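Take our chain:
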Amino acid sequence: MPFRPIPGGRSPIAAICLAAGAFLFGSPILSTDARADFRVCNGTQTLVGVAVGQRTAEGWISEGWWRIPATTCRSVIEGELHSRYYYIYAEDAEGVGRWAGNVDMCIAENEFKIVGVKDCFARGFQKMGFREYDTGGQGSWMVQLTEAPRGGTEQP
């Protein structure tokens, strides 16, 4: 299992609590501030690790892990989206659920940012299938991860 939950993820706990509270209780501050970004919502009952891939001026980049607690959302790309296609791979901390696709990119066990999608193994990384999301060129997008079906893998 590549994703290992590590204390002290990528953003402060206060931001997660604020976002969770706003999601649950409908904060008027957040509802009036339209914010463009790429969000992933964890609709499961377990912690989920998310990796995201995209094509940039540097080339193909895969980056992770964003740790998204159960029933919360998190921005994995902040600000206005500039590409049409984004790629997601996710797995739960228990190693039971996995959200994957057929676009191969590189990942690492711990926090990573990897340029390029070729020769993952030769460069010391793992190769994993990411799912493609076509945003249609919209400035913001949201992906909802739900409980995996009996096979343990969901491809939303």
